[in-house]
Design goal:
By secondary structure, the protein is of the alpha/beta class. It has one domain (2-162): 3-Layer(aba) Sandwich (Dihydrofolate Reductase, subunit A), CATH 3.40.430. It has 4 helices and 11 strands; from the N terminus they run E-E-E-H-E-H-E-E-H-E-H-E-E-E-E. Helix 2 links the parallel strand 4 (39-43) and strand 5 (59-63). The two termini are 13 Å apart.
Amino acid sequence: MISIIVAIAQNGAIGYKGDLIYHMSADLKRFKALTTGHTVIMGRKTFESLPKGALPNRRNIVLTRQQDVTFPGTEVYRSLDEALSKCSSDEKVYIMGGAQVYTQALSMAQELEITLVHDTPALADTFFPEFGSDPSWHLVNREDHEPDEKNAQPYSFLTFRRD
């Protein structure tokens, strides 16, 4: 099962200058709960943006076109197809960014785990690919949340599955 996990603003924004736009406690907790014990695949820039390197209690796969590069606690592959070929058919794989990897993975994914932040950021330079016009995606779960002391914006957890 290939699942894409992402936090998206109302306008599709996901990042600015190599960082997440929103740092929401609830989103980070959900990310950890969903991905722990599973495989996460990310691009090199996404990996390099992680504050502590490889994520604990997960199989970390980094994609890069750079030759002979290694990152502690990870497996490195040159393409998404190569990385997926190293995963077993019963393995749950989460695609966690960045934008190029999301674009490549969208046609392969069976699930989208989205934190929709009900806000439009003033600054953004990275966007999630459009998927809403694809009739094969169906919303199967939605949890709406109001802002609180740890989450400045209202947000929704959305799960979409493909036919």
